[in-house]
Design brief:
By secondary structure, the chain is mainly α. The chain has helices spanning about 10-15, 45, 55-60, 65-90, 100-105. The protein has a domain at about 60-95. It is elongated and about 100 Å long. The termini are far apart.
């Protein structure tokens, strides 16, 4: 199966049950690896107290300029979408340019206002 003198290929030692590491078990003795045994202290002493949550004013003070610019760009995109929706509603949401196509088929130029200087 495996050679007894090869520690990396000895499957018998690998499959042997190890020390019991469950929470209620006694801590294992030091096996020469320099690892100290785990102390069994109450969980209250191990868990640090949670700091209080920062208020909204404290969180707003931590905002940097890049976050402000990101918010402004989001606001600009929202305004652009609203303006585009208003513009499309003026044309009854028609995006196929039927009026321009009809005027080309009739042989007349589309109605374009030309500003003349007086």
């Amino acid at each position: 199966m495996s050679q007894a003198d090869d520690p990396f290929k000895n499957l018998d030692e690998m499959m042997a049950p190890g020390p019991d590491l469950s929470p209620g078990a006694a801590p294992p003795d030091s096996d020469g690896l320099g690892i100290p045994p785990v102390s069994t202290a109450p969980e209250e002493e191990l868990a640090p107290a949670k700091p209080p949550r920062p208020t909204l004013r404290e969180r707003l003070r931590q905002i940097d300029i890049f976050t402000v610019m990101l918010g402004l760009s989001l606001l600009a995109i929202i305004i652009a979408v609203i303006v585009l929706a208003i513009e499309l509603s003026r044309y009854q949401w028609d995006t196929s340019a039927r009026s321009a196509r009809q005027s080309v088929m009739a042989g007349r130029p589309p109605a374009v206002e030309v500003f003349r200087s007086v």
